[in-house]
Write a structure and sequence with these properties.
Largest sheet of chain A: 6 strands, parallel
Order of helices and strands of chain A: HHEHHEEHEHEEEEHEHEEH
Structural class of chain A: alpha/beta
Mean pLDDT of chain A: 94
Number of strands of chain A: 11
Strand order of the largest sheet of chain A: 8-5-4-9-10-11
Distance between the termini of chain A: 58 Å
Number of helices of chain A: 9
Radius of gyration of chain A: 21 Å
Helix content of chain A: 40-55%
Oligomer: homodimer
Chain lengths: 218, 218
DNA sequence: TAGATTGTTAATCGATTAACAATC
DNA sequence: TAGATTGTTAATCGATTAACAATC
């Protein structure tokens, strides 16, 4: 029985830490480290060993008393928990600066996401070659999403159109959004939304710089 | 006495919510809404009114009993808390897809960040015009950072070089990083780091899609 | 077997929500 | 003054850390 199927009610705090564990384990794996204890990992990652053990044990016992964790095994298991063994079909909606950058830069395939198409409302971009595909007009969305079983849309469109486009895409069968538009989407709760609000991140940076400067003055 | 100077030991959970408050208040302001109660705002933002009042009161009393909050005033105050009234000098290090996209797409100036230069180690990019500036070689970094009082560096370089480049930049006087490299920087604790790990965000999306699919099966 | 380290329970800490007195 | 809504204290909830028995 797959362990991740049992996994429910895991807090988003835990989920947010999984990619970082996965990254460190990947590096250890690449360095041919065979085993690691929660203590060693805690020193590398600057978190408590207790938290590491609690986090892993949300999904089952991956370690062995007196020995620690097998790096390869743990890496694979966390990969499965993160769903990297499943494949999904993805499109990018919005072929502006950010949309093009993500198309070129993100290694979607490596994470099981098949990048199938890119769309924009701007006629000037239609037919432009990005990576190995051509920017399509928004009018193609409905048939394309339905014909290609698209389940994920990356939204790199302005906030003025994002809410409406998201609703439209849900109508065509899209199940999840990676949202870069600076707005909160209004979609049914069974739709998964992961937002990257770059402006919010920049404001956080601004706050923390200021706080540091003020502290220094005292 | 400025309120934000008193503000200390505010949890990052609160800070993370400030940009969203700021966004909603900006929209209310643009719609010429004059006053709002924590109750009304809580319905708009889908958070508790209690949390809103607690969050604001970390920084001082911005409201008025029996009346609510003046939208314009509150917007300005949160702007000040976020440090938008201060100016900073910023460079982008890494002129690949993402660096170029951020240069073109982020409205740095609107948030008090003056975008002063962009750098890359790739000779082919040197001299390329991006927005209104030319990509410079990494060799220029030291003199440029020192001569232009650069305090913030946006890192859009591969993880293999990010740690070393960050350390180098700290040596030249950079005080803060907006880090897009998929690695944890190793800088002194007085240096502010705000990381945007796009891959981690994508993995979180992957996890949540999977979880939903598994739930549906049951 | 002895030593090491997990898995898990219990204790602590911090963040969120509820309640209500203060006051505009 | 009466009604509304904040500011703030108290109660609850959840997440993190500590401790240790289980066990490899």
């Amino acid at each position: 029985m797959d362990k991740e199927i049992d996994a429910k009610n895991i807090s988003q705090a835990v989920i947010s830490r999984l990619p970082r564990y996965f990254r460190y384990l990947g590096e250890l794996k690449d360095s041919n480290v065979e085993r690691i204890s929660s203590q060693e990992l805690s020193e590398m990652m600057k978190v408590t060993a207790s938290q590491i053990r609690q986090d892993f044990n949300n999904f089952g016992g991956f370690g062995q008393q007196g020995y620690g964790y097998r790096v390869n095994y743990l890496y694979d298991e966390i990969g499965k928990i993160l769903g990297l063994n499943k494949t999904h079909h993805l499109i990018i909606v919005g072929a502006g600066n950010l949309g093009q950058a993500l198309a070129n830069y993100m290694n979607f395939e490596r994470r099981g996401f098949h990048f199938k198409g890119i769309f924009d409302s701007n006629e000037q971009l239609h037919g432009k070659k990005i990576r190995d595909m051509y920017v399509q007009p928004m009018e193609n969305l409905e048939s394309f999403v339905k014909d290609n079983d698209i389940d994920i849309a990356v939204l790199t469109i302005p906030k003025t159109s994002a809410v409406a486009v998201a609703e439209e895409l849900v109508g065509y069968g899209v199940k999840a959004f990676w949202n870069f538009a600076h707005v909160d989407l209004n979609v049914p709760k069974e739709i998964v939304v992961e937002s990257v609000h770059l402006s919010d991140s920049l404001l956080k940076l601004s706050y923390n710089i200021n706080r540091k400067e003020n502290e220094d003055e005292e």
